[in-house]
Amino acid sequence: MSQKVWKIGVAGLGTVGGGLLQFLSERPEFAPAGGRVVVTGVSARSRSRPRSVDISGLTWFDDPVALATSPETDIFVELVGGSDGPAKAAVEAALKAGKPVVTANKALIAEHGAELAVLAEAAGVPLLFEAAVMGGTPAVKMLREAMVGDEVKGVAGILNGTCNFILSEMEAKGSAFADVLADAQRMGYAEADPTMDVGGFDAAHKVSILAALAFGCAPNFAAAEIEGITGVDALDIRMARDLGYRIRLIASADISAEGVAVRVHPSLVPEGHPLAETRGALNALFIEGARIGRIFIQGPGAGSGPTAAAVAADIADVMTGARRPVFQAPARDLKPFVAVAPTRRVGKAYLRLLVKDQAGVIAAVSETLAECGVSIDSFLQKPVEDAGGVPIVLTTHAIAESVLTDAINRIEKLPAVLERPRLLRIARI
Ligand code: HSE
Q: How far is the CA of 248 from the centre of ligand 1 (A)?
């Protein structure tokens, strides 16, 4: 009997594409449904660029759309990246041509996932993206498959390794953000243009996808509240530590009677908490199920080997014929995404003020907070050399964000306050 041959077309031969080719050459026996897996065609920006894998025996396509629709492609693997442009065109073309698609493209799925799900389900083919979130750590399959018997109430975690590396280094060395970013770029941890990572957008793409899988709604990246780590000061890291916290970029998604809240913020996490102890480029995620309770996963969120392994796991699902809707439910049955307004958030907060060293300042600040109805949980004043004033830090009990903003606006106007107070959220985890 002749063996089934699965012909794979791979668009994008960067870190992940190269890793996938290497994986398939090292594991010729990889064929979870029997038969054989062969890469037949490839496409990338440059044909002549030196590569660690030999592509001379493969058919080269200048145009990823032509690769996606080629009769020689059984499964189209999109590793080009970007929410629009060639990646989107090729994925749409593949789905319209009835080809299963595997992608690592978080921006594409977070921004166009709902419309692509319609195409995939109309064609009756899978659209899989395990590698788009947490690289090699299986968060997508966990939510789409393992948690589907429960009701997920929320997810929260560290979804960007670059930011976690930078924050961990700032913490360990007491260095400024810009210095650590420059080091991270030299070592290849951060991109030459780090905006997607340090601006919080990469984590927001990922958590938007997790929200859709968790809550059965369409992904809605536009509704995400996004704050990156560029404003995190070494002083905040020190002050937070003195109060028993570490600062992490926390991406979270919660569902309540009001709707869905998707947020990315640099946040204080109590020392000893698994997210506070997640250091370097690792990713970590808590999933809260109504019946299962809390699940914690931690692992590599990037890198050639781990991310290629996640792509290979999706290829395996295509071959074995696993059939699931693209998100938690068929595209036509996805719930509308009702966003909770940022001002509705209720939580504890950290405020750092820079004030003149004179009598009555603390009284004025606490009076203003009391007038606004903000209750102080802890308070710390520390002389810091060259700070240009006296930094004082306080944490609040849980308070609505709208009330907090009002208090910050009023404190900023006090004569002894030298700059707008710095707000960081205390993670609800
Ligand atoms: N740039 C991402 C990170 C990895 O730093 O986590 C790919 O999503």
A: 15
Give the class (CATH, top level) of 5-132. Answer: alpha beta
Residue 101 Cβ contacting ligand 1 at under 6 Å: no
CA distance 235 to 171: 10
Q: Is 206 a catalytic residue?
A: yes
CATH architecture of 139-299: 2-Layer Sandwich (3.30)
d(CA 418, CA 397): 24
Contact in structure between 278 and 164 (CB atoms under 8 Å): yes
Q: Ligand 1: does its nearest atom lie under 6 Å from the Cβ of 162?
A: yes
d(CA 255, CA 45): 41
Cα dihedral 154→155→156→161 (10° resolution): -160
The pTM of the full predicted model, rounded to 2 decimals, is 0.96
Domain range 343-426, CATH architecture: 2-Layer Sandwich (3.30)
**Domain residue ranges of the chain, discontinuous segments joined by +:** 5-132, 139-299, 343-426
DSSP reduced 3-state for 10: strand
- How far, in Å, is the centroid of ligand 1 from the Cα of 269? 21
Q: Per the residue annotation, which of 4, 206, 348, 382 is the catalytic one?
A: 206
- State the sign of the Cα–Cα–Cα–Cα dihedral 179, 184, 185, 191: negative
DSSP string, 316-334: HHHHHT----SSSS-GGGP
> Residue 206 CA: which ligand 1 atom is closest?
8
Q: What is the pLDDT along the chain (429 residues), one digit of tens a residue?
A: 567 899 999 999 999 999 999 999 999 889 888 888 999 999 999 998 888 889 999 999 999 999 999 999 999 999 999 999 999 999 999 999 999 999 999 999 999 999 999 999 999 999 999 999 999 999 999 999 999 999 999 999 999 999 999 999 999 999 999 999 999 888 877 888 899 999 999 999 999 999 999 999 999 999 999 999 999 999 999 999 999 999 999 999 999 999 999 999 999 999 999 999 999 999 999 999 999 999 999 999 999 999 999 999 999 999 999 889 999 899 999 998 889 988 888 999 999 999 998 899 999 999 999 999 999 999 998 877 776 789 999 999 999 999 999 999 999 999 999 999 999 999 988
DSSP H or E stretch at residue 377: strand 376-381
Q: Provide the 10 A C-beta neighbour count for residue 162.
A: 24
CA of 203 to the centre of ligand 1 (A): 8
